[in-house]
Amino acid sequence: MTSTWVNWAGYQMCRPAVTARPESTDELRTVLAKAAAAGHHVRVAGAGHSFTDAVLTDGALVSLERLNRVLDVDSERGLVRVQAGISLAEASERMHEHGFAFPNLGDINVQSLAGATATGTHGTGAKLMNLSAPMHSIELMLADGSTIEVNAENDPDAWRAARVSIGALGIVTAITVEAVPSFVLEAVERPIPLDEILADLDGYIDGNDHFEFYVFPHSPLALTKRNNRTDKPEKPTSAAMHWINSRLLQNYTFEALCKMGRARPSLIPGFNRFAARVGGYNAAVDRSYRIFSTQRDVRMNEMEYAIPREHAAEAIRRVKAVTERAGFDVPFPIEVRWVAGDDAFLSPATGRDTCYIAVHMYTGMVWEPLFREVEKIFEDYDGRPHWGKRHFQTAETLRSRYPEWDRFIDVRKRLDPNGLFSNAYTDRVLGPVG
Q: What is 5-63's CATH number?
């Protein structure tokens, strides 16, 4: 079956020769055999929330949306095994039924677990690593249709490579997650002057389980989000207030301002100051996965980079100054989060405590000049791009930024020696196989 695939933002599109939605690993194995026989490359699509061309192919495009079941729950060891196509939202709900949760999540929960981890997706929390870190073991289907199970003991290099793989090693079919007991978070969202935050940045980061903020160009205010574990009973925001905050303000009103700003860019600074004043107040006590997730309907382009934590304040000031330059007309806020370092070979946070800084541009507006200018700042701090967000790097420019780059490449050559799972994106950012 063929069809046109388009990502969530609407900027990436391809028309593969074959589109497959297997319901079992046996069906997936057949897809791979047919693709190899036809000389097609194979890529896997999740929920389409990556902004790059990582999925695009004219060969075989595989969706794992039907491989979305919870396979096993080991309550004693806290291990939850799921099929790789399950969404973060569904996995969170099913895990909670057994008394478990992910230790950390980002603010979007519609991605597939395999897609989110393959691109190094993350949440925020100075003592918490990105979403791929709790992967206890990973089942991979290789180009010949065989499956292997990799973990820290039986194949540590393949395990460290497969946790953030950009889909370049094989197809992840199942994941065993090291879950934590379900927990409740108390969320407090408040606007605070950016200068005040940057003057005591470590205090905010280390003083909260999860701390992040958004800051609009041309506004002195940062919209802070502090999520902390609590023993308080669940007391979610009322349905009416949730609709006002999540739907009316963060989506309907914000999109209306973006549309007006796109039509008349001179209005954007005033709109941004207005949005910062009215959009930053909220409080709730609820299950962790409900607090973490936010409904995002406003389409945009995004670039996000990971830099060493110690450079955060300086980089934030520089990025904000660029977004306020005449001619860039940025209606979206800068997003700032933190994670602990990990050891996945291609994780943007590998080997160092990390600050993530993201810039966005509303759909239909010119984005490339801004992103290129901001990328220059990130390069001054040995920045590593989020693998699912816009960037202009190549294998040549990236190799020196990852201490164990060559070990990933060695695993890739071992597991996919003929490059069945490659495409233009992987060739550009990893280099061709061989």
A: 3.30.43
